[in-house]
Write the structure tokens for this entry.
Amino acid sequence: MWIPVLAVLVSILLGTFILISRDSKSGRRKDDHSIAKHDKGSNVYSKAEISLHNKRTDCWIIIKDKVYDVTSYVEEHPGGDAILAHAGDDSTEGFYGPQHATRVFDMIDDFYIGNLEL
């Protein structure tokens, strides 16, 4: 009776191992596809394209000709909806305003998705 149960368990473990190993050979996990879509520095966006991302649920901003998708940060923004004032547009002036602590300069890189088309 133990042999069939053991055979099923070994099959499950082997199948799981094969799936994990196949994903790791590609160098990314299954949930990394969205990250790959916005590979740092590989994308260039026009102002027209960026302007479409101007909502709380889809918020891109431009800071010094770099494009950032800050959608996931909108609800956490300590300044409330102020982050939406320039959603889909250039936020350089507001970003470098006196209201921001120096830690925002380190945080912003996490949201970088590409460059502004010049």
